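For reproducibility, we list the full input for the zinc ion complex.
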Amino acid sequence: MAGRAAATAILALGASYVILKQLKNKRRSRSSFVLKDSMRLPRFAEPHRYDIELMPNLDTCKFDGKVAIRLEILESTDHIVLNAADLNIYEKSVSLRTSATRQVLWPTRIELVKEDELLILTFEDTLPLGNALLSMDFQGTLNDQMKGFYRSTYTVGGVNKNMATTQFEPADARRCFPCWDEPAYKATFKLTVHVPLDRVVLSNMPVNSEAVNGAKRSVFFEESPKMSTYLVAVVVGEFDFIESTTENGKVVRVYTEVGKKEQGKFALEVALKTLPFYTKYFGTAYPLPKLDMIAIPDFAAGAMENYGLVTYREATLLIDEIHSTAANKQRVAIVVAHELAHMWFGNLVTMEWWTHLWLNEGFATWVSYLAVDYLFPEWGIWTQFVDQTVEAFRLDGLIESHPIEVEVGHVREIDEIFDAISYKKGASIIRMLQTYLTPDVFQKGLSEYIKRFAYKNAATEDLWAVLSEVSGEPVEELMHSWTSQKGFPVITAKVHGKATSVELKQSQFLSSGVDGKGEWVVPVTVAVGSYKVTGSYLARGKISTIELPAASSESPESDSEVPSWIKLNIGQTGFYRVQYDEELAKRLRSAIASNSIEPTDRFGILEDTYALSAACKQPLSVLLSLMEVFQKECDYTVLSCLIDVSYRVHQVVNDALPAAAPDTKKFISSLFQTAAKKLGWDPIPGESHLEAMLRGEVLSALVSFGDEDAIAEAKRRFRAYVDDRRTSLFPADIRVAGYKAVIHDSKGSDRFGYDSLLRLYRESDLSQEKNRILGTVAASSDPLMVREALDFLLSPEVRSQDTIWILSGIGLEGREASWTWLSENWDTIWGRYGETTPLIARFISRIVSQFTSYEKADEIEAFFATNAPPALDRTVSQSIERVRIMAQWVKHVHQESDLVDLLKKLASGGEESSDLSRE
Ligand code: BES
Ligand code: ZN
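The corresponding predicted structure, in tokenized form, follows.
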């Protein structure tokens, strides 16, 4: 806000843009995430209505445009400042027609400021206050960078064709038409698009009328309600669609590539039920006359919530009954529910500025689980929500994290905050608050907030104020510590003897093990000995003592010799970790072994113990003994967490005590045998969604950890499939296990696995299947073949949007080869993907994250010190911090005496195993 006021003041004084720029440059030292040079448009005028005409040429990939903006001049000024980028503006076409004086004014100066993406119009005299109409003609390019108005490609009957589509969030509407490209400048939009006769054109609103002009068709769309520029959308191409109507009478369509409309059915069903669900939940009807959802072959994000025309990657919208997995379906449901949530939270009520992006994304993430739980109660999606919290912990435990609310100045900084903090920490603290306020009160508050701010903008404080008003709780005070500072607490819990109280101490948890300085207001919950007895408290300050719920004597354990267990953070709804003293940890271990702890809490205990171990706060042996009590685990979410933890344990042992790595793998494999036996390799008729997902995860983990039986079976089924695509031996849910098994053994001249995978890749036209293959091709144990896979990534056969999948398959065995490849090809990679920050960021984070030594951290740091631009600072420093944290863990584990013996014991299982598992 300060920045905007400053810019306004300077320009209002009539100073030239040069002064403004000098001021900015002085501040442009990019040392921290918080930049003070807030570059917001001066509020000389505000737009009310845009009349936009676009004429894309799908052969030359250029487009012509006209815009007429009805606006109001608010301040005495001779400037109008708005945004434009990569556009040629026809100078002679720029005019301002004022209402008051009925004059047509021509600017004396038209300036395009490339660096700040501004269009500055200077007029001879001070402009009259009040309404005016600003018009101009321009030309632009349908670019290949998946932002602005861009080109995507598809093939019909072997012929390559172009389509034109838009992606404007966060700040790329200005690449399509000159506009006030900030979320707070809401206006109505009326679009007209001229397209070839045989093409479909879609936009936010329904078509009002059409006219044919020779080889072109002019399509006039209805005027939209008031909305932000980043939500405007246009798509031109060839599509099929399926449609249906919601119970409230809204027509919903899913558009797909020609011939694939059946694949839109699942998403259509989800949308049909989700819209009425949100209508009820938010207490406000879906605000637009129709909803279209469309799959775009080249797409940078996963999906985009354009008002009334939601765009998706193919993989997040389309489901093939045979080749999609249960996990693919769940992803589609979550993504659709997320984007549709934005129709209210984001589109109807919009964040005032990008600092509040987390409100949009954290909220949509949280509420998508609510909708999916309503649609598919058997999926246990709230149990799976804990993954969101953990992924947020992983980033927020770094020194290089950032607060949820971030000051954002230049548009280039916005991309960086679409991260796990805005989405996952945001969603997690909303869940924490909802639990604290109770679901009913929370819902009341939200629907009031939506009503009050509909068609307007809001900031974080506005939401807290409404929630306080409705609940009577001090929401602002409670939430401030979570949104304004980075990090989160670990709560250390201690009891003394048979005491009835627990002593809690909070400190900031950092993945490096260092104690941070942060302090939070923590809603603590506790269960004692059974879930019948629970309590909740607000812990303020460093140390607090909570009285245990008195009824604990009634718990079943009270008669037995075993004292009651105590579990904090029931259901993992709080955004904190817990460290128990030895006695409490032991009780929890036996409670898990005796199956008296709920899945989310088992998950929490395992995940916190892992994190404390990796931060060198507890020996690895403590984690290993805990893992051992999960032998019989069959819950999907808990097992996925165990698999994840196992990969990291294997990584640390592999680098600290290589001789013990085989025992580690054996021990880890033993943990999954119960589940593997129960699930088998073939779908069981009538099985649940979670069983189908778990089968895929467990079998692929067993293959990765070298379980010989699993590898042999995976290979057998893969071969059967290569020989006959119609075989039922290789259903989609187990394919990754098969792919991993054969690629791992592809080395030297034995190219069967790699070559077969490429053949399957070329054959498939389902994005999800292609991604699955890409996700494994770089997992060979032969460095040369890893390089070959990475070279393939740069070939025209892989769309830029999909390169991330290949990177995700790189493992320990391929890390050196992939780092060498990255450094050798850096210029090419930078040249190709440099404009797409999130994509290039993955190249770094994926490859760097495999390393665990200080020397490598130094080498990587030195490399990027000279090779990476500021936009990647954050990614580079986060990745290097992670390597150093791993290096520290490796050092500790290396020094941990007895580990080799312990792992041997664990690997041999049975008699020799530690006493804990038998308690
Ligand atoms: N608003 C985002 C899309 C977006 C992301 C635009 C980054 C610009 C930059 C959209 O609502 C979104 O969050 N999509 C997610 C999927 C979601 C289920 C988490 C995505 O793209 O991954
Ligand atoms: Zn979103």
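Residues 873-895 form the longest helix (23 residues). The chain is about 40% helix and 20% strand. Both points were considered when choosing residues for closer inspection.
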